[in-house]
Amino acid sequence: MRGKIFISYRRDDSASLALGICQFLERQFGRNNVFIDVDMQAGAKFPDLLERRLGECKILLALIGPRWLDARDDAGNRRLDDPNDWVRLEIARALKRGITVIPVRVEGANLPKKSTSPADIQRLLDNQAAVVTTAGFSNEMAGLAHDIRPISNHFLKLIWIAGAVSALSPRQPPLSALRAQARSLNARTSSSSNKRPRPHADDHGSFESLR
Asked: I want to staple 4 with a disulfide (CB 3.0 to 4.6 A). Which of 17, 135, 160, 192 is the partner?
């Protein structure tokens, strides 16, 4: 049954906010209704899991931070230019399936120009974006959840989150540190979580070479 939510993000671009978003939605919809790939079992095959999750998905949230467009692999090549880049695959396959794809601008990032993105994901940039920041996290997440509900409609109890998480490297903080950042973010904003949402306009090292 379709109606779940899939989150796509790059670890070296927006990992701590992605985990914070996951924790926020766990409180909204229940832990068992939230999936993020750092909780994948060892040995799980991500390509197969990706296809299954997209098959259940009604909405994909594409987190776009300052380094989303120009992230580079170890050879210095732009990751988005690789047809096998997981973030690109997630978005392209969601668009092809007719899934609602919502760009989510994080950490002050702007949406890139369509001409700077691969052709198979350019339609992402035609869609109205949401914004999530550290300073406005609670209100902005409440607004995003408010916008998601009519789309998900009768399937709210079946919501899942999947993320594109690149492997740990010496340049990246350990997962435990990212989880701590996410907990801190939610703790700082929990006191305002009862505010009414305001409408807004707007491990898996085997995959490192593909992210």
From this structure: 160
